[in-house]
Amino acid sequence: MQKSKTDAQDTGKELFKREFLITGKWKDDCIIVYGRLNDTFHEMEASARFSFPMLEILEMKGKLIRYGNGRDSDNTKEFK
Predict the structure, then answer these.
(1) Rounded to two decimals, what is the model's pTM?
(2) Quick one: what percent of the chain has pLDDT higher than 70?
């Protein structure tokens, strides 16, 4: 018996795609966490640096790279 394809497995036109990347690493007795979201409508990244072992927030940054109708350098926003 052969399995049939579901709507999600169909090879039709893609309407939406979302990818996440999250990394963490040690550096100079701190934990650095970096995250990136990229989907059909948005692209953004965020990073944070924490002391160890107290986990005090030492630095946080975020950036909207693309949102709305597309990529535009005037639309790039940084948050600190």
Answers:
(1) 0.65
(2) 72
